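Notes from the pairing session

We agreed to fold both candidates in a single pass and log them together. This is the raw record for the first candidate, unedited. Please don't reformat it; downstream parsing expects exactly this layout.

Candidate A
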Amino acid sequence: MNRREFLTRGAAAAAVIGSGGLMLGRSVGDPGRLTTRPRKPTKTITPGEHLVADDVGRRSILFVPSSYDPARAAPFFLALHGATGSGERMLSGSRAAAEAHGVVMLSPSSRDYTWDAIRSTYAGDFAQIDRLMNDVFDQCAIDPQRVAVGGFSDGATYALSIGLINGDVFTHVVGHSAGFIIGGTRHGRPKVFLSHGRQDNILPIDQCGRRIAAQLRREGYDLRFDEFDGGHTATPEMRERAMQWFIGV
């Protein structure tokens, strides 16, 4: 994906948000709804990294922190990579924060260079996320009061979108440098953390981060919005800050 595509998306999002609507795209039926929920696991798992899917080299990884204890329900974080990224790359940037705070982290890979609904509709990527989350919940003791989804760039757009649609599953939503929010029927009321660089020249903050934040505030969401001096990035410090917000440190 090139800069022009990013800017075109940002401009489209700005037009929709500026006219009083948050959503980009139309909802048909109730797309983007997860079927899985945290529950008492029937299996066991050991700490460490586990390969949970491999689609022609597009690997999805589950990370279980060293502090994991099946007798004590752990927080869960679904981490979504940006365009041209992968689950492995996303995990490499988020692993330290997950380990430090005892968070079980699932980092899937999209089947193409970005997530399905970014360009079209919820389809194979979303179905795989639902399946992988179901597998995690069958192996790990997860606290239903601490279930997060987050991402960077396109992954942040996707995380915000499915997070608001599934706010009865996700208690917290994190978006680092998001572009827009895809249309869909919302359920629940998750807390939201946004971060965006003031010098972002891929998804400009005025067209994207600030407009999304303003709309969510008008909608009454519990929102934290951290602006920072920098470009299109999610620094380790910002990922740690978001994790602390999620855990409640």
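Candidate B (folded immediately after A)
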Amino acid sequence: MTPVVFTPSDEPYLGRELLCAFDNLICSCLELNAKCAPLSHGDELTDLQRAACILVPQTITLALSIRELIRQGYLFGAKVLMRPFVERAVTLMYVFHNSEGLELWNQGWDYRKRPTLQKMADYLNEKLLHGQSPMKGFSQAFNSATHGDPFSAQWNVVFHEGVPVFPVSKNLCSPGLADEICAEAIPWLASAMGMMSAAFNQREVGPGSKTN
């Protein structure tokens, strides 16, 4: 019988290479956060550090939520969480590289004034990559999964005896989708680590590294 609740020893996608990489990055991220968090206590913080104190924990929490949903086989739910997860990581990068964006964040990040996820991605592409990486349609898939348009069906369909069906519970037979979610999550969690490290002047912690 399929377990009602999976544990790390019997989860359905255990052993997937990208899932293992995601796990290792999460451990490194939590280790770095344990170093940076105390630095935010007591001292006067910069505007960037105040933004990081909000955005970094939210990004990590969403990463852990995505990981747990994968463990329990709720892949569509994990996919839907990708947009708020990515948006926080992108916002953190955006306010780090854009002083006007940081000021707008400190003023409350008014939805009528703040840039969209797509516009932030376009700005970062120009700023960091000199426009070399096409970003057109960057937010399209994230929006599709979030808002439930017909295109979103691709992440919630499996084949049963050759017939496409839309599961309402655990999806235990889509390793490709599990890989896709991990592949999307890894670079953005890594970027959040980089921004956290930069905001608090810490070296990033990687697998096998030593901390003080």
